[in-house]
Task: inverse folding
């Protein structure tokens, strides 16, 4: 039973780290506006942006672009902190951080 509790605590801690990124003395978390990452951590080493049009399923079951809705703006920022630290990828939609991923060591 103790081992099961330890495993659950370990997994809970691991998931929490995936939801935030530490820069110096600051923390950036999911739900934060994207500009806070640049404000707290500096400019990312790589920025990618793309748009996804708003769609809906019509009565025939087909996905159709909705001309009345604004396209979702996706941003992917990668931070490379060097060879001694793990890289971090931030995925944002409409300038709101949705996911923070830890990658391998930087270069």
Result:
């Amino acid at each position: 039973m103790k081992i099961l509790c330890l495993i659950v605590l370990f997994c809970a801690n691991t998931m929490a780290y995936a939801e935030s990124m530490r820069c110096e003395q600051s923390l950036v978390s999911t739900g934060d506006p994207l500009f806070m990452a640049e404000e707290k951590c500096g400019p990312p080493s790589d920025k990618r942006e793309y748009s996804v049009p708003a769609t809906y399923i019509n009565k025939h079951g087909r996905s159709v672009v909705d001309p009345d809705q604004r396209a979702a703006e996706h941003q992917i920022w990668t931070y490379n902190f060097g060879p001694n630290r793990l890289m971090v990828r931030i995925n944002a939609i409409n300038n709101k951080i949705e996911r923070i991923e830890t990658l391998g060591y930087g270069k």
About this structure: The two ends are 42 Å apart (CA to CA). Confidence is low (pLDDT under 50) at residues 4-17.
